[in-house]
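re: ur question from earlier - yeah i can do the single chain one, its not a big deal. heres the input i used so u can compare w yours
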Amino acid sequence: MTQALEIMNCAELDEAQLAKLRGLRVTQEQAEFGGTFPDSLEAILSSVDGSVQGFCFLEKDEPIGIVVLRHAPATADWVPGDAVSLHGFKIDKNWQGKGYGRAAFRLAVEAAARSWPEATQLVLAVDAENTAALAVYRGYGMADSGPIYAGRIGKEHRLSKALR
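and the output i got, formated as tokens:
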């Protein structure tokens, strides 16, 4: 069902696609941890130095999801200097549960490697109770750092994966 899923840099979207992307929604709980679609789009479009890039997931040219990728100097203090960090990865609630998360995550990893060829790893933090996201990330080979950390909202795992 996800064969047609594509990824596009948000900077290349037309006005109609940007409007649709802003209108996408996630559950309230998902928004608490990963922000809303407008939040993610604002972070992407306000970056001027290229250290924050955003990518939209498209199904037949229709936006269904988004991801924010960050590289130094726009990363958190726990992110290694050779890493790209992944943030705000989300699929619209109407498209969830159909396999798009797995396909989109694979495309996001590929986009991180293309955008920053010097980066050697991808890292992210995820809510410790978000079993669906953990399954996607671990299924793609991301390794847990071990301990569970006190995050912004609650307990979180920090995961990493080699990009090369």
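The chain has a mean pLDDT of 91. not sure if urs matches, ping me
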